[in-house]
Design goal:
Helix content is 31%, strand content 16%. By secondary structure, it is an alpha+beta fold. The strands form three sheets. Strands 4-3-5 form a three-stranded mixed sheet, with no helix packed on it. It has a two-stranded antiparallel sheet with strand order 1-2. Helix 2 packs across helix 3. The radius of gyration is 17 Å and the shape is globular.
């Protein structure tokens, strides 16, 4: 499967800004498209098309069509976390790359510049320009390795995947989030 050509992302911070940006590209804001955007803004993290369809009350085929249009126009990107479905997220405030814990499902969103040292090392050693926006970097977080990765005292990420969506809510110290 080939990835669609990269489109410059539009800048926006809210639904009104996203709407204006889309109209600036000559797109109209149909009711289903607005509902998809509202669901993405409400999600607070990457979500599947099925999750959007359930929460927005829109037919899943319509959600997929709208996500495709939004991605082709630089409003949405999709990312794969672990073995779950492709998840969609807004990019108006900037691109993110993700670390995904295969043990507990925790997710850490990073700015691309935070992974630049890794990209430089890969470029220097292998002559390869690495990108981490489409597929998350999988592995085990500090908590799941018993602190073997770093100092062992880092707080557990509150963002975590439930397979079809990523969200945050508090977990008691020492309790890993469930990936249901």
């Amino acid at each position: 499967m080939t990835e669609a050509p990269r489109v410059d992302s539009l800048a926006f911070t809210d639904i009104e800004g996203a709407t204006a940006a889309l109209r600036g590209r000559g797109l109209r804001l149909s009711t289903p498209r607005r509902l998809v955007l509202e669901a993405l803004f409400a999600a607070g993290g990457p979500v599947s098309a099925e999750h959007i369809a359930r929460t927005a009350g829109v037919d899943v085929a319509s959600v997929y069509r709208n996500l495709e249009t939004l991605e082709a126009n630089g409003v949405v990107r999709h990312v794969h976390l672990g073995h779950g479905p492709g998840l969609h997220t807004l990019v108006g405030a900037g691109e993110h790359e993700y670390l995904y814990c295969e043990g507990c499902g925790s997710v850490r969103a990073l700015l691309p510049e935070e992974l630049e040292p890794v990209r430089r090392e890969i470029r220097a050693r292998f002559g390869f320009e690495a990108r981490f926006a489409h597929f998350a970097i999988g592995g085990l977080c500090e908590r799941c390795t018993g602190g073997a990765v770093g100092g062992g005292d880092a707080p557990h990420d509150l963002l975590h995947s439930h397979g079809d969506h990523v969200h945050a809510h508090p977990h008691p110290h020492g309790a890993a989030p469930a990936s249901a």
